[in-house]
Amino acid sequence: MLKAIAYYRVSTDRQGKSGLGLEAQQEAVRLFADRQGYQVTAHFTEIESGKKNQRPQLLAALAQCRKEKATLIIAKLDRLGRNVAFIANLMESKVQFRAVDNPHADELMIHLLAAFAQHERKQISTRTKEALQAAIRRGVQLGKHGKEVQCHKEREAADEFAEQMRPTVEEMQRQGITTIRAMCAELNHRHVPTYRSTSQGWHIRTVHALIKRIAENQSFINIL
């Protein structure tokens, strides 16, 4: 059986401690390794921003790969970062790696995907700055007060969505669908729209956030 080292990355310490995002990556790597005949001998988890290239856990994973002549497996290519130079340096380390979402990607494709990811990050930054400038021209108050107003609106909208979803959640619970993972699968099976109405559907993280908000809203109602 081929040897493999698993590498996971989450952006925040909160995600690392809660398992949000990390659990999905672990499951994706596990299924991929089983299908491809890999034996995962070690796991490395990085808590770091995708913009930064200083990854001690990744360096440790690469060292372990070289030691065991193993392949590095990641759930998604963007877990390695959105920097072309960083991807190039990784490839020069002579360690073979495979991304679950692009299992047949060759070196050229990986370079292109990394380039597109970096370009997307720059575009998002540019659009954000342009949107802020447009808001200023419209007279929107930014700064601390403006952020507070926007956050308040976001909370109200999220609370309203949670109340709309409460009957669906309670129905699933009555049917014995009580775990976050099972609810996630059922919501996607029913094609229930998410709060953001994205095409990616429900994830463990979004279902967890929904259940938590429903519980918090119920507690507030009980207090009143």
Question: What distinguishing features does this structure have?
Answer:
224 residues; four-stranded parallel β-sheet; 8 helices; 4 strands; disordered C terminus
Describe the 3D structure.
This protein is α/β, with parallel strands linked by helices and 224 residues long. The chain is built from eight helices and four strands. It has a four-stranded parallel β-sheet, with helices on both faces. Strand 3 (71-74), helix 4 and strand 4 form a beta-alpha-beta unit. The longest helix is centred in the C-terminal third of the chain and has 32 residues, at 143-174. The protein starts with a strand and ends with a helix. Mean pLDDT is 78; it is low at 15-20 and 220-224.
* Terminal residue distance: 60 Å
Largest sheet: 4 strands, parallel
| Shape summary | flat
Element order: H for helix, E for strand: EHHEHEHEHHHH
Low-confidence stretches: 15-20, 220-224
How do the helices and strands line up, and which of them pair or pack?
Elements: E1 2-10, H1 13-18, H2 22-36, E2 38-47, H3 56-68, E3 71-74, H4 84-92, E4 97-99, H5 107-137, H6 143-174, H7 180-189, H8 204-223
Parallel strand pairs: 1-2, 1-3, 3-4
Helix pairs in contact: 4-5, 6-8, 7-8
What's the short story on this structure?
The protein has about 220 residues and is of the alpha/beta class. The protein has helices at about 15-20, 20-35, 55-70, 85-90, 105-135, 145-175, 180-190, 205-224, and strands at about 1-10, 40-45, 70-75, 95-100. The protein is built from eight helices and four strands, in the order E-H-H-E-H-E-H-E-H-H-H-H.
